[in-house]
Amino acid sequence: MYSSSEVRQCHLLFRSSSAPCCACIISVTRTAADPLLHTPEQEGITKTRLRLSTVLFVQKTPDLTTGLTFQKALLLYSYYFIKSMYLDSMSEGVLHESLARGQDALHFWQGIPTSAEVSSRFNDVTQPELLVTVVTARRYEGTDFHYLLQVMQQLDGILRGCGERRCAEVLVCDVESGPLENQDAKLLEPYFRVIRRSPREQLGNRDQVNTFEREKRDYVFCLRKGWELLKPKNIIVLEDDALPRLDFFKVVKDLLSRRFALHTLYIKLYHPERLQRYWNPEPYRILEWVGLGLVGATALLLILPYWNPCLFSFKLSTSHLLFFTLYFMVTAELLGRHYLLEVRRLSPQLYAVSPATECCTPAMLFPGNASLRVADYLDSSFCYKGNAKDIVLYQIARTTPGERSHSVEPNLITHIGAYSSVRVNPARPKLL
Predict the structure, then answer these.
(1) Which ranges does the record mark as transmembrane (predicted)?
(2) Are residues 254 and 400 in the same domain?
(3) Distance between CA 1 and CA 12 in Å, rounded?
(4) Pair 309, 408 in one domain
(5) CATH number at residue 404
(6) 103-115, pLDDT tens digit by residue?
């Protein structure tokens, strides 16, 4: 065991610097008079392993005196996040930020003078390279957040940065079927093409169905209507609370240039961060996890002979390689795979493509005419609780010969919708 002075010294230095220093303190603070330094080599190796194992589980433990900023920036999707202490306050903070963005977006669209040039640009285009269809419905709760206006403001800003050749054409698909208008969609009509069901189509859609089937039918309507209007080469469907990141179109362009895009039914552009961990039934993540551990362990053992400030006695051997592989694997899982994926944002070419998972559909890319096939597949299925459209699509891609589906990581959108337009909402939504 370590002496109390060693533990205190390690803790103080850890709070003031980086975590690896903790390992060095425990390793080098013993004096030459300590009998542990004069044990056989094997015993020394064993004790060093114990030291490293101890460091692993204390190196990132959140200090109870740390502020909300550190928790918010690093630990929300980590095992170290303390829900009972931080979740409520963080959720409230995010709600306030989203409300402020929603009000800013409302003032933005209300303050722009209507322009005949802006509203006519869409009509002059045929067969664009990419069409973005934003599916929206009126929210009966959280209307002050104006999610649709936030998304369209972000899209407008990104599109203006594309230059003379637009990155995509944008279509708003308003599927509101209630007695009240979708005011946010109405506000956008001077600037974007907004489509709705005709009176005849509304009559044909009056039958009583469950929420999940209704949501699926709305999705199919928007898919087909976008194709009928423009015959685009590729279609992206965004839900009205899917806020695109600034590199959205750059990454999409790179994805469409890759060979796999020619033979896929759909590409998911979002997967919930809480479901992106390594400890997941998806086989490719297990392989990625083991590979990360092997690379980290090999690199460390190759460096130690040349740079070893902590005086570790490890060497490149099977037992040490296995130990450090497991060490790096556990450390990566505890820290959170979601945060490691963020490194890939350095370049569109670094975004990873993998087999698609079940949940969810806030942002979907349909290359070529895949949107028509998806609409036909969904039409042939009936949705209900436990068999929503995302699960139906996943099962179709898995069971239909010749069909494949993919997912891109990290996410290309941020899911900002705390209040749903189709499901029961809690009194105060939370992040997790």
Answers:
(1) 286-307, 319-336
(2) yes
(3) 18
(4) no
(5) 3.90.550.10
(6) 999 999 999 886 5
Instruction: Please indicate, yes or no, whether residues 314 and 205 belong to a single structural domain of this protein.
Output: no
Question: Two tokens at 421?
Answer: 């337009």
* Percent residues over pLDDT 90 in the chain: 49
Give the separation between CA 269 and CA 405, rounded to whole angstroms: 11
Whether the per-residue pLDDT at 167 is higher than 80: the answer is: yes
Same-domain check for residues 228 and 99: yes
Tokens representing 279 are: 């400890």
Please report whether residue 67 resides in a domain: no
Q: Average pLDDT in the 222-250 region?
A: 95
- Total number of residues shown for the chain: 432
The answer to the question of residue 182 being in a domain is yes
Q: Which amino acid is at 164?
A: E
Are 309 and 348 in a shared domain?
no
Q: Which two tokens stand for residue 302?
A: 């190759």
Task: Give the pTM.
Answer: 0.78
Whether residues 255 and 158 fall in one domain: yes
> Could you tell me whether strands 234-239 and 363-367 are parallel, antiparallel, or unpaired per DSSP bridges?
antiparallel
Q: Are 223 and 365 in contact (CB under 8 A)?
A: no
Same structural domain for residues 38 and 114? no
Q: Which tens digits make up the pLDDT trace of 204-218? A: 777 788 989 999 999
pLDDT tens digits for range 361-413:
999 999 999 999 999 999 999 999 989 999 999 999 999 999 999 999 999 99
The residue segments making up the domain with residue 328 are 283-335
Cα separation, 240 vs 137, in Å, equals: 8
Structure tokens given for 188: 């956008």
Average pLDDT taken over every residue of the chain: 80
State whether 324 and 380 are in the same domain: no
Question: Is 76 part of any domain?
Answer: no
Q: Which amino acid makes up residue 339?
A: Y
In 3-state terms, what secondary structure has residue 49? helix
Q: Please tell me the total count of domains within the chain.
A: 3
Cα 30 from Cα 42, distance rounded (Å): 18
Give the DSSP letter string of 317-343: SHHHHHHHHHHHHHHHHHH-HHHHHGG
User: Does an H or E element contain 234, and which?
Assistant: strand 234-239
Q: Is residue 13 part of a domain?
A: yes
Complete DSSP assignment for 80-129:
T--HHHHHHHHHHHHHHHHHHHHHHHHHHHHHSPP-HHHHHHGGG--S-S
